[in-house]
Write a structure and sequence with these properties.
Blueprint: H1 7-12, H2 34-58, H3 63-89
């Protein structure tokens, strides 16, 4: 049975459980690049929101594409909040 993880486990970094090649031929365990993912999710959120508003206002015939951008903006917002949760929990990256 696996023990409950503590904050210092996250601060130290979790092992590369998602990496099938972990420690293969002496390679170190993979670490997550959470800060990069946070920046990319923030950029996607801002860009998709601004582009959707611009399409709704300036090019009404392309409103269908604006709705696609709204869905992508919502996905970026969900990813942004999840990465923030993981960083606040103490995971490095």
């Amino acid at each position: 049975m696996e023990r409950r993880r503590e904050r210092r486990d996250y601060e130290r970094g979790l092992p590369g459980y998602h990496d099938p090649g972990v420690r293969y031929l002496g390679a170190p365990a993979a670490r997550s690049a959470l800060t990069l993912r946070l920046w990319l999710a923030g950029f996607g959120l801002v860009f998709c929101t601004a582009a959707a508003v611009g399409l709704f206002v300036l090019v009404p015939p392309l409103a269908w594409f604006a709705w696609v951008l709204v869905v992508l903006a919502v996905a970026a917002l969900i990813d942004f909040t999840w990465v923030l949760h993981r960083k606040r929990r103490g995971e490095p990256g």
